[in-house]
């Protein structure tokens, strides 16, 4: 179809393949309405790739296969599975479980994505690889998530990925954002007439041809199909007014199928109901229905179906037209024939699905088969598929109590998969449910409500669920109380007496922990004590909880792996709330390590947020920046908060504003309390560094004017500094009192040093100097280098105003050097201005070989310098080893080294 133009689109494909041959991976999405030429462009890519020595693997989404987890991914990867032995064992296991080839723990979606990336990269090592995915809108959700993950991570492999995506589609298509798009529009009238002239159909007179061109709106498939039916339609008085091109094309296919003999129509229906395209299966099902082999000939002659090594429809709309137009009784006959033809021992899930589709009314045996399929899907990590199987099972279940129980289970799976479970909850709530099931339903309803609205009703609903669960499932009840408290910390409304006060008061009635308390139990008890009896009373319990999360309690590793992956972010924030920098470091490091080791990589963004905070506060800005590489893989809001914090401390207003806008956009303006307080804290740091103290005061005041202040100490010192520098120290009196009280209760160098720093700013004369010196002494004993440097800065500023120029230079010189070296650009500039005011020229930061590295390259260099292999680094950064090697070549060039050994000899700490 070269005469159809598309030169720009073909050039995009050619460029993608050219880059792949050169070892520069890429991906593109071809979007457009049905029949517009997406498949033709994919076939063009296939032809060009075949001619250039590429290996081509492909997958096609099918509407009736969306409930089979990883079906599309398996179709794409099946020809490459002989290379699985080259993958690290955890990745082999993840793919094996996902594809149903072995049993094992439910694999994390990120781990499956990494395994797929490396499997494709291994295949590409033998020669360039092209991956084609047609009708991607019908991929099962699990496959779509993994393949789009891979598309965003390919970088330095001889590999290209091309997706075709129908636009618009009746199905909600998520996850394809961020991949370059080629959008196909209609062909022009000249090309349309040329296409019609080349078609081997009944000749059209001028009137019919112009009518076809006008009706098709440049859609090539519509042109051909309308032309085929034009004579009959014209005789009948013109085309029927069917809305939309897709419906118009589908209607032409329907009419053509309806004109075929009855056995042929039934054979078409069986083929349409089977997404596998297996020829032997089609003939077994046909035999069951008494359909002879020659019945296929009319469908092939009509251009609807092709049977050779596979059963193929001319276009996906043929399949949908056949399925939509079939009478319910005929559809059930087709599914029954397919169920009979499928060996349940070989393919139990497809057997169960077809058997269920053949049922009219209810059928417990068919429902039980779907329940077993749901279990297998869940074990492979296909929660959306499990929900589909279990939801259908509930509809087929005759017993009301069993139906409600299955609907509740399906709703749980659907919610965990991130989809709307409200319809299933309605079925479940119709009951009857036993008391425990009813309590679990209310818990799920509360979790869904909080997930959707994130408002103050979420904690209250979780609280009611926790109360209901208390006599029925004490362990789940305690976990739900902690969920309610977590929700209150995020969304509470202190001014109306709701949120944290309401939840913690109710949580006093939580059932006691049974046996040895888990870390989550210790955290719940510590937080409840803190919020009901006061900060000082709660500190000992919180420290015990943190020790468990940090793996420092007896049997801590055995007890707290699951708790750490689920609650590690809350533990990290708890460590900040008690000014325990050492425990913040230990908990965050352990949290990151366990998410990697257990494959629970979905929890990684929260884990990295805690690690980033301690690295920023410790002045390790470069290390914190390296986590931006992970942000690109996960696109998660927690890591955007980490980047916002880093940008603010670096003193980069444009970058900080952009990051803040991204957070608001991704959070859909649902950030509350803790998240908002963290954002406002970052803005206060930025403005204090820039010397815009009024703006800093406003931001810090907003940070403190939330219920998060009960759980967050970060903004207090920022408010004190901004208030004193803007001439209104009285506005920070409450913040100073609270900071001092908490610091004394915590007794840590971090807390005591920060409180002394803030007291010094509000004091005069000898008292101020004593507090400055105390702050420096305390902060020298902890990791919080940023505030140590800032204490030297404000001490130097005070000394200069006191006329002690020489003493001021000493403090300002120290502050400037520390701030310059860590990369706190705005604070360093502030120190430089003060130094110049004392008559001294501030030094400039000496250039380092690593300065030319990006944060991403620096992270790779640092990992390689520790002795990590390319494969180990690739696993940590969700990249392929080949991509890591490509980055290393750039790193070697920039650093002036030629080997890993030389890199290890450089100081990259």
Automatic annotation (TrEMBL):
InterPro entries noted in UniProt: AAA_16, P-loop_NTPase, Sig_transdc_resp-reg_C-effctor, TPR-like_helical_dom_sf, Tscrpt_reg_LuxR_C, WH-like_DNA-bd_sf
Domain HTH luxR-type: 846-909
Keywords per UniProt: ATP-binding, Nucleotide-binding
Transmembrane segment boundaries: none
Pfam families hit by this protein: AAA_16, GerE
PANTHER family reported for this sequence: TESTICULAR SOLUBLE ADENYLYL CYCLASE (PTHR16305), TRANSCRIPTIONAL ACTIVATOR DOMAIN (PTHR16305:SF35)
Protein name: AAA family ATPase
Organism from which the protein derives: Arthrobacter zhaoxinii
Organism lineage: Bacteria, Bacillati, Actinomycetota, Actinomycetes, Micrococcales
């Amino acid at each position: 179809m070269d005469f159809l133009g598309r030169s720009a689109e073909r050039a995009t494909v050619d460029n993608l393949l050219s880059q792949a041959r050169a070892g520069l991976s890429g991906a593109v999405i071809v979007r457009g309405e049905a029949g517009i030429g997406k498949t033709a462009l994919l076939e063009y890519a296939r032809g060009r790739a075949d001619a250039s020595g590429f290996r081509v693997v492909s997958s096609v989404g099918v509407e009736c296969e969306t409930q089979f987890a990883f079906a599309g991914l398996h179709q794409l990867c099946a020809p490459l599975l002989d290379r699985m032995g080259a993958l690290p064992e955890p990745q082999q296991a993840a793919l094996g479980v996902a594809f149903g080839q072995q049993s094992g723990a439910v694999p994390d979606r990120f781990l499956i994505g990494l395994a797929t990336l490396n499997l494709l990269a291994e295949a590409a090592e033998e020669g360039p690889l092209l991956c084609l995915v047609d009708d991607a809108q019908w991929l099962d959700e699990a496959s779509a998530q993994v393949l789009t993950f891979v598309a965003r991570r390919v970088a330095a492999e001889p590999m290209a990925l091309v997706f075709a995506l129908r636009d618009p589609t009746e199905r909600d298509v998520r996850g394809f954002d961020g991949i370059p798009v080629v959008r196909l529009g209609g062909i022009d009238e000249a090309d349309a007439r040329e296409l019609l002239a080349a078609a081997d159909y009944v000749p059209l007179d001028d009137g019919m041809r112009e009518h076809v061109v006008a009706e098709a709106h440049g859609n090539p498939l519509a042109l051909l199909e309308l032309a085929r039916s034009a004579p009959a339609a014209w005789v009948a008085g013109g085309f029927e007014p069917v809305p939309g091109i897709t419906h118009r094309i589908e209607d032409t296919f329907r009419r053509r199928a309806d004109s075929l003999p009855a056995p042929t129509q039934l054979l078409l229906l069986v083929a349409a109901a089977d997404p596998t395209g297996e020829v032997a299966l089609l003939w077994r099902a046909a035999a069951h229905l008494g359909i002879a082999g020659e019945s296929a000939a009319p469908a092939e002659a009509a251009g609807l179906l092709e049977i050779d090594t596979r059963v193929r429809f001319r276009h996906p709309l043929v399949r949908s037209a056949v399925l939509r137009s079939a009478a319910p009784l005929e559809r059930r006959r087709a599914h029954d024939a397919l169920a009979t033809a499928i060996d349940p021992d070989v393919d139990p899930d497809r057997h169960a699905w077809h058997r269920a589709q053949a049922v009219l009314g209810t059928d417990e045996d068919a429902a039980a088969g779907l329940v077993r399929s749901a279990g297998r899907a869940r074990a492979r990590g296909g929660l959306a598929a499990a929900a589909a199987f279990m939801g259908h099972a509930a509809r087929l279940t005759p017993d009301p109590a069993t139906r409600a129980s299955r609907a509740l289970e399906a709703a749980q799976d659907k919610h965990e998969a991130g989809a709307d479970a409200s319809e299933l909850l309605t079925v479940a709530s119709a009951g009857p449910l036993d008391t425990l099931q009813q309590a679990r339903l209310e818990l799920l309803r509360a979790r869904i409500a909080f997930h959707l609205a994130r408002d103050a009703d979420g904690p209250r609903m979780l609280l009611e669920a926790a109360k209901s669960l208390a006599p029925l499932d004490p362990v789940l009840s305690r976990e739900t109380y902690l969920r309610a408290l977590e929700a209150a910390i995020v969304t509470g409304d202190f001014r109306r007496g709701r949120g944290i006060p309401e939840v913690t008061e109710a949580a006093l009635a939580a059932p006691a922990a049974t046996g040895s308390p888990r870390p989550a139990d210790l955290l719940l008890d510590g937080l409840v004590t803190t919020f009901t009896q006061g900060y000082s009373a709660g500190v000992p319990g919180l420290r015990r909880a943190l020790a468990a999360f940090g793996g420092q309690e007896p049997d801590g590793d055995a007890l707290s792996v699951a708790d750490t992956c689920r609650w590690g972010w809350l533990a990290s924030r708890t460590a900040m709330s008690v000014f325990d920098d050492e425990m913040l470091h230990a908990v965050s490091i352990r949290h990151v390590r366990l998410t990697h080791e257990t494959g629970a990589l979905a929890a990684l963004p929260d884990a990295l947020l805690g690690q980033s905070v301690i690295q920023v506060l410790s002045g390790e800005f470069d290390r914190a920046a390296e986590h931006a590489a992970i942000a690109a893989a996960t696109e998660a809001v927690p890591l955007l908060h980490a980047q916002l914090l880093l940008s603010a401390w670096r003193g980069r207003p444009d970058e900080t504003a952009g990051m803040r806008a991204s957070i608001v956009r991704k959070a859909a303006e649902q950030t509350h309390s803790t998240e908002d307080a963290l954002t406002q804290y970052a803005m206060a740091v930025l403005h204090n560094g820039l010397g815009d103290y009024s703006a800093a005061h406003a931001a810090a005041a907003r940070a403190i004017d939330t219920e998060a202040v009960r759980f967050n100490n970060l903004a207090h010192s920022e408010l004190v500094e901004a208030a004193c520098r803007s001439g209104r120290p009285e506005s920070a009196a409450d913040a100073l009192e609270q900071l001092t009280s908490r610091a004394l209760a915590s007794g840590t160098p971090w807390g005591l040093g920060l409180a002394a720093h803030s007291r010094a700013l509000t004091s005069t004369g000898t008292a101020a100097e004593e507090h400055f010196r105390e702050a420096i002494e305390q902060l020298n004993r902890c990791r919080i280098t940023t505030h140590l440097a800032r204490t030297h800065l404000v001490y130097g500023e005070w000394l200069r105003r006191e006329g002690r120029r020489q003493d001021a230079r000493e403090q300002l010189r120290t502050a400037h050097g520390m701030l310059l070296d860590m990369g706190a650009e705005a604070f360093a500039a502030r120190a430089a201005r003060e130094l110049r005011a004392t008559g001294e020229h501030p030094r400039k930061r000496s250039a380092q070989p690593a300065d030319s590295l990006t944060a991403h390259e620096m992270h790779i260099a640092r990992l390689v310098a520790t002795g990590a292999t390319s494969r180990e680094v690739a696993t940590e950064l969700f990249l392929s080893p080949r991509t890591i090697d490509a980055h290393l070549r750039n790193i070697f060039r920039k650093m002036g080294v030629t080997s890993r050994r030389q890199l290890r000899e450089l100081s990259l700490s």
